[in-house]
Design a protein that fits this description.
Chain A is of the alpha+beta class. In chain A, about 35% of the residues lie in helices and about 20% in strands. The radius of gyration of chain B is 19 Å and the shape is globular. Chains A and B meet through helix 3, strand 4 and helix 5 of A and helix 5 and helix 7 of B.
Chain lengths: ~300, ~220
C-alpha cells in the first residue's frame, strides 16, 4: 500500500513523459512538468504523491491451487488490518466516512470498506494482492445506451464524460480512461472501473476490434483540445482501455472512468513458500477472466 | 516557450500584492495558512463556534484541503502529502466566511465561477489560487515547514479538522481569478469550445434522454 501511495507506476510515468514531451499548451505544459517533479519528490521523501490518497480497495486473485491459512476470513481480516496500518503509517488521508453520519475512524476502514473483490486463475499456488487507491468524486459516469445508439452513441457519451469532468481538471487528467460496455448497470460500472485501474498503459484488449477502438478513442479524447487541469492542450487521455461483458439483448450499458494523475496501484504476489514479489501490472484480464465458453478448456482455446 | 511568471506571496498579502497578480501566474506562499472546508464552515458559521485563531492577522489564506497526515501519540504531527479538494462545493459558505475572517487567498482545486469572483471575491479584495495537477501533493508537502496546530480534530475528525501550517515557499499554485473578477478556467473553456463541434462530428445523442439533460457543451457541471 505504501508503494501504491508513493510510487507512480512505470507504465503511467512513461505515458505522462510522452505527453509532456508532446504538449504545446503553455499552462498544460507547466502542469505536466510540475507533476513529473512531484513524482520525484514523492519517491525521494517517501511521502504520498497526492494529498487525496484515494479510497484504498483490494483485488485478490488466486491460482486454483492456492490455500489460505485460516481461510478467507483470515485473509479479509489481514487486508483490513493492512489498510488501517498503512493509513497511519504512510500516512494516507483517512478518507472513508459513513455516508450519512460522516463518522471517520481515521483508518480507512468501515462498513463495506475497504472493498475486497476476487478473481481466479486455473493454475497456480500463488495469491496476488492488488491494491488500488483510486481517487474519485469526478470523472465517472454511467448511461444505459441501446443497440440503436451504435458507435455514434458510444462516442458521444465518451466525449460528454470527458468534457463534463475535464473542465477545470475535475477528472485530474491526463488519465487512464476505462470504458465498460455491457453487463447490467452495476457490472458495467465494475468493468469500466477495472479497465481503468487493473490494466496498464499500452495494454490492448485481446479482441482485435476492441483493441482498434481503444486506439481510436485515445486519439479522439486527445483531439478535444483540452489538457491537464482543463487548460488548452492536447493530452487528456494517457490511454483508453475497454472491457466488455455480455448484457441484456435489448441494451448496451456503458460506463466511463478516469484513473487520475496519481494512478495508485501496486501488486504483491505471495507464493506458497512465502516469497513475495512486487509489481505494478495487476494482469487481471487474462484469457480465463475474459472466457466466453461454458467450460474452460485452455488447450482448445490456445489451438484456435 | 517561456513559462508562466513566478511570484512569492505572503499569506497575509497587501492589497497591492493581490492587485499585481495576473491570471496564470505561478505563486509560492510564505506564512501561516489554515485548512477549512465544509466541516469548519458549518461549525464556525452554522454552529457559531469561536474560531480558534486570530483571523486575518495570523493568516488570510484559506486552503480547501485535507492533508494526508497523522497526530502522533505524543501530540506531534506528521504531514506527508497535501492537495486541495474541489472548491465549488463551498460557494454556499464563502461570502459569510470571507466577511467574518477577512480571507484574501482562497486556495483549492478548480476555482469558482466568475459570478462568484465578481460578487464576493473582488469586493473582499480576494483572489483564488488553484493547486496544480492535480495534485502535486509531495511538492506542496515539502513547502510545509511546520504544522503549528490542529483545531477541532475531536469534533470533526482528521480530514475535516482545521490544520494550521507554516508555509515556506509552498507551491506551485496558479492564479485563477483576479481583481477584475475574471476566471482563468472560463477563459480556457471558451478557447476549447471553439473546437468542440468538430470533435463531435460523427456522434449522435442517446436514444433515451436523461431527465433535465442539456446538449449545450459550453455548460459546466459545477
Amino acid at each position: 500500500m505504501d508503494k501504491a501511495a508513493i510510487e507512480i507506476p512505470q507504465d503511467y510515468l512513461d505515458g505522462l513523459k510522452h505527453a509532456a514531451a508532446t504538449e504545446d499548451g503553455d499552462l498544460s505544459s507547466f502542469v505536466l512538468k510540475a507533476m513529473l517533479d512531484n513524482y520525484e519528490a514523492a519517491k525521494e521523501d517517501r511521502r504520498a504523491m497526492c494529498g487525496d490518497t484515494g479510497v484504498p480497495r483490494w483485488f485478490v486473485k488466486m491460482g486454483n491451487e492456492a490455500r489460505v491459512e485460516g481461510g478467507m476470513v483470515a485473509l479479509e481480516a489481514a487486508l483490513r488490518r493492512a489498510t488501517a496500518n498503512a493509513t497511519n503509517g504512510v500516512p494516507l488521508r483517512p478518507n472513508r466516512v459513513h455516508p450519512l453520519w460522516r463518522t471517520d475512524h481515521d483508518n480507512n476502514v468501515g462498513i463495506g470498506a475497504p472493498e475486497i473483490e476476487y478473481g481466479f486463475e486455473p493454475e497456480g499456488e500463488w495469491i496476488d494482492l492488488i491494491t488500488v487507491h483510486k481517487g474519485g468524486l469526478f470523472g465517472t459516469d454511467y448511461r444505459m445506451l441501446f443497440p440503436s445508439d451504435g458507435m455514434e452513441g458510444i462516442k458521444r457519451f465518451y466525449l460528454d464524460t470527458l468534457m463534463a469532468f475535464g473542465k477545470r481538471g475535475l477528472a485530474c487528467q491526463p488519465a487512464i480512461i476505462g470504458i465498460g460496455l455491457g453487463g447490467s448497470k452495476d457490472i458495467c460500472m465494475c468493468l469500466g472501473k477495472r479497465a481503468s485501474i487493473l490494466r496498464t498503459v499500452g495494454s490492448r484488449n485481446s479482441d482485435s476490434r476492441i483493441a482498434e477502438m481503444e486506439d481510436e478513442f485515445k486519439e479522439l479524447g486527445n483531439s478535444i483540445g483540452m489538457g491537464a487541469m482543463g487548460f488548452v492542450g492536447k493530452n487528456m487521455v494517457i490511454d483508453c482501455n475497454i472491457e466488455v461483458g455480455y448484457c441484456h439483448t435489448g441494451g448496451m450499458p456503458m460506463s466511463v472512468h478516469a484513473f487520475c494523475l496519481s494512478s495508485r496501484r501496486a501488486v504483491a504476489r505471495i507464493h506458497a513458500d512465502g516469497r513475495v514479489e512486487h509489481r505494478t501490472d495487476p494482469d487481471w484480464f487474462t484469457d480465463y477472466q475474459r472466457r466466453e465458453t461454458v467450460e474452460w478448456e485452455p488447450q482448445r482455446e490456445a489451438a484456435e | 516557450m517561456t513559462g508562466p511568471r513566478e511570484v512569492r506571496l505572503s499569506t497575509t498579502p497587501t492589497d497591492e500584492a493581490i492587485a499585481n497578480l495576473r491570471l496564470g501566474d505561478v505563486v509560492y506562499l510564505d506564512g501561516l495558512m489554515y485548512t477549512a472546508r465544509e466541516g469548519v464552515y458549518m461549525r464556525a458559521l452554522e454552529d457559531k463556534a469561536n474560531i480558534p485563531m486570530e483571523l486575518p492577522s495570523q493568516s488570510a489564506a484559506n486552503f480547501h484541503c485535507s492533508p494526508a497526515a497523522r497526530i502522533n501519540p505524543d501530540g506531534s504531527f506528521d504531514m506527508g502529502a497535501v492537495t486541495a479538494t474541489a472548491s465549488f462545493r463551498f460557494a454556499k459558505w464563502l461570502p459569510e466566511w470571507m466577511a467574518k475572517t477577512g480571507a484574501k487567498l482562497i486556495v483549492g482545486k478548480g476555482g469558482m465561477s466568475s459570478k462568484d469572483y465578481k460578487e464576493y471575491f473582488v469586493p473582499n479584495g480576494a483572489v483564488y489560487l488553484s493547486t496544480v495537477g492535480y495534485g502535486t501533493g509531495a511538492l506542496l508537502g515539502r513547502g510545509v515547514e511546520n504544522v503549528e496546530a490542529v483545531h477541532w480534530n475531536e469534533e470533526l475528525g482528521l480530514a475535516q479538522a482545521m490544520w494550521v501550517i507554516k508555509c515556506n515557499r509552498m507551491g506551485p499554485f496558479i492564479v485563477a481569478s483576479d481583481m477584475n473578477g475574471d476566471c482563468l478556467f472560463e477563459r480556457e473553456n471558451a478557447k476549447i469550445a471553439e473546437n468542440v463541434a468538430r470533435v463531435y462530428e460523427g456522434t449522435k445523442p442517446a436514444v433515451l434522454k436523461r431527465y433535465g439533460e442539456s446538449d449545450d457543451r459550453t455548460d459546466e457541471v459545477i
